[in-house]
Amino acid sequence: MHLLDTLRPAPGLRVLVTAGASGIGAAVAAAFRDAGARVHICDIDAAAVARFIADHPGTTGSVADAAVPADVDVVFDDVRSALGGLDVLVSNAGIAGPTGPIESLDENGWVRTIDVNLNSQYYFARRAVPLLKASRAHPCLIAMGSVAGRLGYPFRTPYAASKWGLVGLSQSLAIELGPHGVRANAILPGTVEGDRMNAVIAARAAATGASVEATRQAYLDKISLRRMVTTDDVAAMALFLCSPAARNVTGQAISVDGNVEYL
Q1: 18 with 143: CB under 8 angstroms?
Q2: Three-class secondary structure of residue 169 per DSSP
Q3: Residue 205's pLDDT band (boundaries 50, 70, 90)?
Q4: 39 shares its domain with 101
Q5: Torsion over CA of 248, 253, 254 and 258, rounded to 10 degrees?
Q6: Three-state secondary structure call for residue 201
Q7: pLDDT band at 148 (very low <50, low <70, confident <90, very high)
Q8: Which residues does the annotation mark as catalytic?
Q9: 50-65 pLDDT, tens per residue?
Q10: Do residues 86 and 79 make contact, with C-beta atoms less than 8 angstroms apart?
């Protein structure tokens, strides 16, 4: 088989997607399921987990807070029961965190952002790695970061700090796990179309007194391609990274953002 014929993951991969019931996580989980993978999701939103499973027959799920180690332990008990092992971890859980100058940020907001965005990556990786080492199906760990993991982000320092930390963790794990045949990469999405971004734009417009249209254009003007990305763009990159075609791609922080020039 020619390498160019291997651009999609092999069917039957056992995949865990954290925060997989909505947004980017749901798009990634659905894409793997449609590609023939066996998919387990976890999410803090029980109703959203139930909806995803109902909409995607054959998937399984757990209700969990990714920042709570005991919850993560339950997820892996469920993964062993549902999948019998693991070939791919997509560690996607994350929150926006507080906004404001560093001297006025609430300490609890800072701690919660680091807990969800960075510490959860550790909690899931430490439980997933033994299973990934045992896999014989091109095992792969994907950490879902942000363009804020390569650019400074004023007034969003907790978020940026967590995403830069995530990149360092991924690149370190690539070195650590490479001799075991496990690849580790980070995906850095940019400005993602959807209800969440619409709400951000509306809130910023209200705060600044600018129109919603002008505020949206200001976001687009920071992007070289002058367009936002979609959750499907991010899901496509995740599929590629878990395909045989990406067998030598590891230790990378790959932006899917149309080239955001600054934040």
Answers
A1: no
A2: helix
A3: confident
A4: yes
A5: -160
A6: helix
A7: very high
A8: 159, 163
A9: 999 999 999 999 999 9
A10: yes
